[in-house]
Amino acid sequence: MTDWAFWGCLPFLVAALVTDIRSMRIPNRITVSAWLGGLLAQSLMNGWHGLLFSVIGAAAGFAVMLLLHLMGAVGAGDVKLFAGIGAWTGFIFTAQVIMYSILFGAVIGWIIALRRDEAWMRLRKVFGTVAGVVVLRNLGIAKSGGGYLLKFPFMLAVLPAVVCTYLYY
């Protein structure tokens, strides 16, 4: 990944942060523009190799985030945005951003839970669900507990993750 790819992707991430904070949504005009812009930029700068680099990065970002979306952890806009991040920055950078985003998201979630005095209640529910799955060997228990998920704009975790990945890449 090169500096120009990071700086090219950054305006889309800032726009996504603003809209995610305001409405808890990331519109398609941002995500699709990021994806197409990454494909085009990589193709123009690096030819067929750049296009392949971009397609693999976009597919990886989309696929991993789609799994998280199906588990209820992120929204559909986040899934599409990570396809855009992957299109600009490639597979390895995107995988690192996903890892850092999850770590930052966990920290943000715990800060919110502690501020709301919900930490112990959430821990009890998590341990209760895990114990129910282990004792009863029924995964349906884990799926039915989704009503207590903590929601916040995931871009609050993604933007610092992108910056950390860029600094330590």
TrEMBL record:
InterPro entries: Prepilin_IV_endopep_pep, Prepilin_peptidase/N-MTase
GO molecular function: aspartic-type endopeptidase activity
Top-level taxon of origin: Bacteria
Family matches, as Gene3D superfamilies: 1.20.120.1220
GO cellular component: plasma membrane
Biological process (GO), any one: signal peptide processing
Every Prepilin type IV endopeptidase peptidase domain range: 10-109
Key words of the record: Membrane, Transmembrane, Transmembrane helix
Listed transmembrane segments: 51-71, 91-114, 148-168
Sequence similarity: Belongs to the peptidase A24 family.
Protein name: Prepilin peptidase
